[in-house]
Amino acid sequence: MEKRKNDTVKHEDMLGILMDARDADDGLGMTGHQVRDELMTIFLAGHETTANALSWAMYAISKHPEIQAKLFSEVNSIIGHGTPKPEDFMKLPYTQNIIHETLRLYPPLYILSRDVTEDVVIGGYRFKKGDMILINSYVMQHDPEYFDQPDSFIPERFENNFIRSLPAFAYFPFGGGPRVCIGNHFAMMEAVFVLACIAKRYRIKLAPDHHEVPPLPSLTLRPKSGLHMVIEERDAEAFEPGASNF
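User: That's the sequence. What structure does it adopt?
Assistant: C-alpha cells below.
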C-alpha cells in the first residue's frame, strides 16, 4: 500500500517491478491480490525450497565428517579467501554433488501434480481426461533399482555424469517436461555457492541431542522441528589451498 501511495517514486526492487508490469494486450497492471500471489510464488519457489535444500545439506554433511572434510578441501583450493564467481561453479564438482545428493534424498518439492489431458493407460492403470496424477519424487529417488544404497548419503554417486545414465524421471528434484522448474539452474548455482561460502568459514555439527531429524512432508519437505546445529569458526589455516582443517 505504501508503494502505491508513493507512486511518483520509481522502485526497482521485485515488488516495484511487479507493480509496474503491464499486460501486453490490454495494458492493465495487476491487482493487489495478483501482486501478492506473484510474490508468494517467488518466495516459496525461489527461496524456501533452496533454504530447505541447504538445511538438509548441512544436516547430511554434519553426520559425515569425511564428506565435510572433502568439501573443505575443494572450497579451500578454489575459493580460498575470496568470494565465489560464476566461473567457479564448474570448478566445484564435489560441492555440486553434495547438493545433487541432498536433492535426491530430501527433495524440497517432493510431490508434483499433473492434469490428464486425454484418456490414457499407463502401466495397466487407466486415467481419464480431467484426472489428476500425483508424482512422488521422494519415493522414486529412493528406488534401489536406480540408486545403490538408496537411503545413504553418497555424493560420489553423482560423479562421471551419473545423472545422464538414469532414465527420465528417475531423478527429478526440479520436476520435468514442459513445466520443469524455470529457476533450476539458478537454484543449483545459488545452493552450491551458499554452501561453499558457509564451508569456507565454518564447521557444521549437530547438537549433541539432535542426531536424527525426520522429514516433515508439508507444502515442502522440511526438517521436523528445525535443525539444532553447532557452528564453529574455522581458523586461518583453513584457507590455505588443499587444507581441510576438519
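The CA atoms of residues 74 and 92 lie 7 Å apart.
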